[in-house]
TrEMBL record:
It comes from Youngiibacter multivorans. Keywords: Hydrolase, Magnesium. InterPro entries: ComB-like, ComB-like_sf. This is Probable 2-phosphosulfolactate phosphatase. It is an enzyme of class 3 (hydrolase). The gene is comB. SUPFAM superfamilies: ComB-like.
Length: 242
């Protein structure tokens, strides 16, 4: 098994992911929102890249809520923003969430040609690593990045996933994967590293410190959502709560 990393969704092509197990990461905050929503009983999450696409799908689905952000802020007319703390069991259970974000949902869409697409973050790092280890294909970790650029928060999350994978099985690492692993091993206090990230500062300046705190928790959930044919769900047999 070989593990590679794509530094942003903009760096993903069909050839890069084809035949591989893909783990998409947008720690701050889209994949954390997706995981949290499904933990709290959402029926599905439909990631879309534009507001217009989301509004169109809404007309064809039942029990729909709209969530997402542009420039880290809630979209006008949407039910929720991109804050995982908003997606409580009371508001999301039994609902289909249509989600559009600047980086995360684009990275998921760009990864659609992978053999399978797993949704990962710090909150489910050990679980998603264990799931990926159960397959024979090479792994590519797709970091959502920030506006097409490298993002420190996704990079160190990738390192955390690689650490968990190597605890379960042997794997060959590309240079960028080795660098992510070393970054994580040298910054087990993840906040000390992530606080230097541009994306961290943007969220902090917007008063979203509680979101950051939530997203930087490691291994609080044991589910692994999967993206297939345009929809993210829990595979049959997975329960939504620990």
């Amino acid at each position: 098994m070989r593990i590679d990393i794509a530094i942003s969704g903009d760096h993903v092509s069909p050839d890069l992911v084809r035949g591989k197990t893909v783990i998409v990461i947008d720690t701050l905050r889209a994949t954390t929102v997706i995981i949290t929503s499904l933990v709290n009983g959402a029926k599905s999450v439909v990631p879309v890249t534009t507001v217009e696409e989301g509004l169109g799908i809404m007309k064809r689905m039942e029990n729909v809520v709209l969530g997402g952000e542009r420039k880290s802020m809630k979209i006008d007319g949407f039910d929720f923003s991109n804050s995982p703390r908003e997606y409580t069991r009371e508001v999301i259970s039994g609902k289909n969430l249509i989600l559009t974000t600047t980086n995360g949902t684009k990275a998921i869409s760009k990864s659609k040609d992978g053999t399978r697409i797993l949704i990962g973050a710090l909150v489910n790092a050990k679980a998603v690593a264990r799931k990926a280890c159960g397959y024979t294909e090479d792994i590519i970790i797709v970091n959502a990045g920030t506006d097409g650029r490298f993002s420190m928060d996704d990079f160190i999350t990738g390192g955390a996933l690689i650490e968990e994978i190597l605890a379960m099985r042997n794997a060959d690492l590309t240079d960028i994967s080795k660098t992510a692993l070393m970054t994580y091993r040298n910054h087990k206090d993840i906040r000390s590293y992530v606080k230097e990230a541009a994306h961290f500062r943007i969220l902090e300046d917007l008063g979203l410190q509680d979101d950051i705190d939530f997203c930087l928790q490691k291994d609080i959930f044991a589910i692994v959502p999967e993206f297939d044919h345009g929809v993210i769900k829990l595979p049959e047999g997975q329960i939504s709560l620990l």
